[in-house]
Each structure stands twice: as C-alpha cells, then as structure tokens.
Amino acid sequence: MDGPTLLSPPAPAIADAAAHAGAGLLQLHRLRGRTRVTRSLARSPLKLLAPDTHSPTAAVYVTTFGGGLVAGDHIHLDLDAGQHTTTFLTTQSATKIYRAPSEVPARQTLAAHVADHALLVAWPDPLIAFARARYEQRQTFDLAPTASLALVDCQTAGRLARQERWAFARYRSQNAIHVAGRPVVNDTLLLDEDDAPLDHPFRTGRFNALATVILVGPLLQPLIETIQATLGAESAGADSSRRDAHPPQRPAFLQTINPIRNGLLVRCAAEDPRALTQHLRGTLDPLTLLLAQDPWSRKW
Predict the structure, then answer these.
(1) Would residue 49 count as lying in a domain?
(2) Which of helix, strand or coil describes residue 217?
(3) Among 51-60, 164-173, 227-236, 274-283, which is the least confidently predicted range?
(4) Dihedral class, residue 22 (left if φ above 0, else alpha if ψ from -120 to 50, else beta)
(5) For residues 8-32, b (16+ Cβ closer than 10 Å) or e, as one string?
(6) 3-class DSSP assignment, residue 244
(7) Phi and psi for 289 in degrees, rounded to 5?
(8) In what order do the strands lie in the sheet with 170-179?
(9) How far apart (Å, rounded) are the C-alpha atoms in residues 55 and 292?
(10) What integer is the mean pLDDT of 136-143?
(11) Contacts of 235 (CB under 8 A, 6+ apart)
C-alpha cells in the first residue's frame, strides 16, 4: 500500500485558506512511491511553490510577494503530511522583515500535522530583520508516534552591510512540538530592545547569527547519535585546549546540545552567518540521504 485513500479536506479548512489574506493550506500524500502535493491553496501575499523534481521527496518553497513581510502582515500555513511521506519545507531565500512604523508586528504561523512513518524537514533560510522591525513567529508540530521532524530555525543580526546590527525592535520565535499528543518541546526565543540593548555582551554580544535545531523521531535516531558523539568529543577537546591556553580564547562559534524525549535540541551562535550556514549544512548532511536528494544544490 502506498498510502491512504485520498479524501477531500474539511470544507472549513478550505474556506479558511481561501478567505484570509496570507493564509495557506498544504496537503501531501504518498502516491506510487512518491510524496506528492495533493492540495495547495494560498492567498496573497503568501505563495507556495512545489516544483516536480521527479524525486521521492516533495520540496515546497514558501515565499511572499516582495520577498518579505511588512508590519501587519500575517502569514499562516496549515500543513498536513500523510503517512510515509517525505517533505522538505523551505523558502526561496532569506525572509526579510521590513521596518515597522508602529508597534504592529509582522507575523508568521505554521501548524503542521505529520502522520506515522512520515518525515518533515522544515528548514527555511535565515531570517533578516531590518532596523526597527517587529516580528513574531509561532510554529506548532503535531507528530504521530512514529513520525519524524527536523526543524532548523535561524536568524541573523540584520543587514550587516548597511551597519544594521541587532537594530530591530522585537523578535519572538516559539516552536512547540507534540508527539502522540504529549508535549516534547516548547522553546521560545525573545529579543526585545525594551529589555536591554540587543548587542549587549550578556545578550547577543559578538555573535551575528543564532540557530536552533530540533530533531525528533525514529528516522533521525542515527543522525542524533552521530551528533551527540561528535559534539561530545569536540567539547572534550575544546575544554582541554582552553585549559592549556593563556589567556582564554573567545571562540567565534558556540554550540550546545540538549537531549529531549526521542530527540535532540541543538543551539548555535556564530560571529559569521555564512560559517553558521556551512556548519549546519555539514552537520545535517545525512538528511540528504533521507530526502533522496540534495535540495540545496538547486538554491545556491
């Protein structure tokens, strides 16, 4: 069996996706050995692009008219990945958050449901917030007991070439993951200039890019074990070198790992945003085997 019989989504879901600006609906099923987009609806400024790559994996690119969000925009996507599907959800390029003339933020929300034996890789390009921008994001993932999720949430200090470094007004990102109805992760990052300067040494300091990586599910267990072993060995080596160094060195890249139920949470901070991107690509390269393709080869 390649998957369940296709059923039309509930009428309210279709109506909601069609009635509100920025709302979208995406459904995927396994058909004849491949993951296919069986329904895709989007209202401006949201756009959903799903090119046929003749791969077992479905690649979906989320983008907006103008390449970014302005104050008051609210992009919302409902995603339903059926059994045995493999989906790569990304963006065409970095999402820009434009200056907010008031305290009204730009918002993005994602509600994803991933069925048994399915894999969702949600890896958008890093977000770039302009000076005085305000942004809020909430992503919720409801996983079946044997579903797997790889989530990468990355943000930069802003338009560094224009000397806009941590110059936005507010950034809030929340990622909530449930497996079989049980909460596994509820992770929130809040950067608000009202609390203290964003580039304060005890906040972002010298770093210009941050990333959170969350891996959950049985399909990702080999990758999780590899990362734990590799980063554990690197941490031990770094501790030894710091004891021998005088004075202590200030590393240009930091990362921590935290085991979670059936998964792993990794946090990274880098002085060079490009170095962070390269590190994530290298660390998570085994995902290309699960995706049966290298989706980044078509982006850069």
Answers:
(1) yes
(2) coil
(3) 227-236
(4) left
(5) ebeeebeebbeeeebbbbbbbbbee
(6) helix
(7) -70, -40
(8) 34-42, 23-31, 74-81, 106-114, 134-143, 170-179, 182-192
(9) 7
(10) 98
(11) none
Q: Is residue 3 a part of any domain in this protein?
A: no
Residue 2: phi, psi to the nearest 5? Answer: -90, -10
The pLDDT value recorded for residue 6 is 44
The pLDDT, as a whole number, for residue 5 is: 41
CA pair distance 47, 75, nearest whole angstrom: 10
What is the percent of the chain with per-residue pLDDT over 70, rounded to a whole number? 87
What's the whole-number average pLDDT of the chain? 89
Q: Indicate whether 180 pLDDT > 90.
A: yes
Using alpha carbons, select from 119, 108, 186, 121 the residue that is nearest to residue 152.
121
Whole-number Å distance between alpha carbons of 49 and 52: 10
Supply the pLDDT for residue 3: 46
Question: Per-residue b/e over 136-148, b at no fewer than 16 CB within 10 Å?
Answer: bbbbebbbbebbb
Instruction: Give the whole-angstrom CA distance, residue 177 versus residue 122.
Output: 13
In a domain, 5, yes or no: no
pLDDT of 35 above 50: yes
List the domain range (segments joined by +) for residue 111. 11-298
Return the pLDDT at 300. 55
Domains contained in the chain, number = 1
Whole-structure pTM value: 0.89
Spatial separation of the C-alpha atoms in residues 210 and 166, rounded to whole Å: 12
Classify residue 189: in a domain, yes or no.
yes
The one-letter code for the residue type at 224 is I
Overall average pLDDT of the 136-156 stretch: 98
12: phi then psi, degrees, rounded to nearest 5: -60, -35
Of 238, 227, 296, nearest to 266 by C-alpha is: 227
